[in-house]
Design goal:
This protein has eleven helices and eight strands. The protein is α/β, with parallel strands linked by helices. α5 (101-115) crosses α6 (129-137). The protein is globular, with a radius of gyration of 20 Å. The structure holds 3-methyl-2-oxobutanoic acid (KIV).
């Protein structure tokens, strides 16, 4: 298959840091399966996130909370098989790192051993620091995630923009520094004011990837099904749709159904 990207070198956490240093923006997208990951990697995305948004996108759950460790490992293994260049980061699912640092490291090691992914992502700041440190001490790269952290939706009660008030913004800045000091290689900031995200990106030396966090950060991430226009019931302001696959797929499937009903498919050349 012809890869669209010229640069075939494997993306590493070190290369992401160098990209920040020279002001090159980092592209990141989610993937949950082999076929999509192969396309996304071939098109040149730098980081592929096996997001726990698989819970919504792949399984139809209302939140990310129900997805299990084994389900995340299944998605991660499928993605890793399709990727040659991008850094593959896997979300640790809800409940697998919040109980204590010993459980966190056991679950982190299991994901890395079985999936062969490159790094893990954990949601939260000071509250989960012991787990973050323990995992990094074991040699596993960790990406932090602050702002709107969907695993805490039941605490927030809403998917609205986070850290608009000063107290929450100050905590987010402090958490970003704590995560950097703990050794995180990167940080996702979700749905926070652009000015705050820009401030965090300028204060920390690790790459900051935004989703709904404006353009003043070091890179952007979107959920693949949203940016390809497969989902049409989700239209936050930050989402740019690069295709309308909902229409394309509906049209193609409708055409197929019509052809079968009309005995137009298969034709003579499409049989043995
Ligand atoms: O699970 C996910 O897709 C994410 C992104 C929205 C950053 O965490």
């Amino acid at each position: 298959m012809a890869y669209l990207s010229e640069d075939k070198r494997k993306v590493t956490t070190q290369r992401l840091r160098e990209m920040k240093q020279r002001g090159e923006k980092i592209s990141m997208l989610t993937s949950y399966d082999y076929t999509m990951a192969k396309i996304v990697d071939g098109a040149g995305v730098d980081v592929i996130l096996v997001g726990d948004s698989a819970s919504n996108v792949m399984a139809g759950n209302q939140t990310t909370l129900p997805i299990t460790l084994d389900q995340m490992i299944y998605h991660a293994k499928s993605v890793v098989r399709g990727v040659q260049r991008a850094l593959v980061v896997v979300d640790m699912p809800f409940g697998t790192y919040q109980v204590n640092a010993d459980e966190a490291i056991a679950n982190a090691v299991k994901i890395m051993k079985v999936s062969h992914a490159d790094a893990l992502k954990l949601e939260g700041g000071a509250e989960i620091l012991p787990s973050v440190k323990h995992i990094i001490d074991a040699g596993i790269p960790v990406m932090g995630h602050l702002g709107l952290t969907p695993q805490s939706i039941n605490k927030f009660g809403t998917y609205a923009v986070r850290a608009k008030e000063e107290a929450e913004a100050e905590k987010l800045i402090s958490d970003a520094h704590l995560l950097e000091e703990a050794g995180c290689f990167s940080l996702v900031l979700e749905k926070i004011p652009a000015v705050l995200a820009q401030r965090v990106a300028s204060e920390v030396s690790i790459p900051v990837i935004g989703i709904g966090a404006g353009s003043g950060v070091d890179g952007q991430v979107l959920v693949i099904a949203d940016m390809l226009g497969m989902t049409c019931d989700f239209s936050p302001r930050f989402l740019r749709r690069y295709a309308n696959l909902f229409e394309v797929i509906t049209g193609a499937v409708g055409h197929y159904v019509e052809d079968v009903k009309n005995c137009d498919f298969p034709n003579e050349k499409e049989q043995y």
